[in-house]
Amino acid sequence: KTDGASKLTEISLNEAVNAAIELSKVYLEGKSIEFQTELAEDITILADSGKLAAVIINIVKNASEAFLPDEIDETKNGKYIKIKTERQENTALISISNNAPGISEPEKIFDSGFTTKSTGTGLGLWICKKSIEEQLGQLDLERASEDYTEFVIRFGIVE
After folding, report:
1. How far is residue 32's CA from residue 70's CA, in Å, rounded to a whole number?
2. H-helix segments, the chain
């Protein structure tokens, strides 16, 4: 049994992202949220595919919970969560964005114990950030406005 340390292996970025997308779809069931994906040509990264998928799923789940329920939201349309992969020089980027109502205190979202949810522990994003850092990657809140949020995960590329 391992101590829970990340097991870094060379993985296909798109395969890992696609697996996470499939597992995330459950959080969008019964909600009028469009799941958009835009995957670049495949990139090989050094990561722990299970832990990377868990981070993407957590961010998608948070996003799905940030939208107002359909019965309150009169527009009901145009809601989306988008996952995009791209290459910038020797870095692989996974961006996860959505147009749910914004994050009230963006500077605190990675703090242990910080939550805006009545039932949250405030550990999700803190654990996500630690997990990506253990995989030698980086997780940032790239943009947060009233109606647009974007997280970006960065990994070095294996040539």
Report:
1. 7
2. 13-24, 49-66, 124-134
- Here the contacts of 21-27 (C-beta below 8 Å, separation 24 or greater) are 21/56, 21/60, 21/83, 23/53, 23/57, 24/56, 24/57, 24/60, 24/61, 27/57, 27/60, 27/61, 27/64, 27/65
For residues 82 and 158, what is the distance between their CA atoms, to the nearest angstrom? 25
Q: What is the pTM for the complete model shown? A: 0.91
Between helix 124-134 and helix 49-66 the angle, nearest 10°, is: 150
Phi, psi of 96 (to 5 degrees): -125, 110
- Compute the C-alpha angle 46/52/81, nearest 5°: 125
Q: Confirm if 48 and 135 have CB atoms less than 8 A apart.
A: yes
Q: Report mean pLDDT in 10-residue bins for the chain, 159 residues.
A: 71 96 93 93 94 96 87 75 96 96 89 85 92 97 93 94
Fill in the amino acid letter for 47.
A
Residue with tokens 């595919």: 49
Assess contact for 48 and 23: CB atoms under 8 A.
no
- Please provide the size of the chain in residues: 159
DSSP code at position 121: -
**Residue in the block written with tokens 């805006």:** 116
